[in-house]
Amino acid sequence: MLDHLETLNSHLAGHPAPGLDPHDPLPEVALQAAEGFNPNLSRLIASYRRTRDSDTSP
After folding, report:
1. pTM of the predicted model, to two decimals?
2. 42: nearest Cα among 31, 28, 56, 27
3. What is the rounded CA–CA span in Å between residue 54 and residue 10?
4. Cα(50)–Cα(37) distance, integer angstroms
5. From first to last of its 58 residues, what are the pLDDT tens digits of the chain?
């Protein structure tokens, strides 16, 4: 688990993790890891996803 979190942290700090899009500032795997940590963070993640998804919709 700690290795996984360190990899995500490095990716978010600008050192792309293997298998993750280097241009994705918040990979879905990082959002999934943070989701449920607390209600406020979960609401922010949901808001981010809605915004991200609406920006990529045709």
Report:
1. 0.65
2. 31
3. 27
4. 19
5. 567 677 777 877 888 877 888 888 888 888 888 888 889 989 998 998 999 889 766 6
| b (16+ CB within 10 A) / e for 44-57 | ebeeeeeeeeeeee
Neighbours of 38 (CB within 10 A): 10
pLDDT at position 57: 64
Q: Are 43 and 31 contacting, i.e. CB atoms less than 8 angstroms apart?
A: no
Residue-range domain boundaries for the chain: 2-56
Shortest CA distance to 29 belongs to which of 42, 20, 37, 39?
20
CA distance 48 to 39: 14
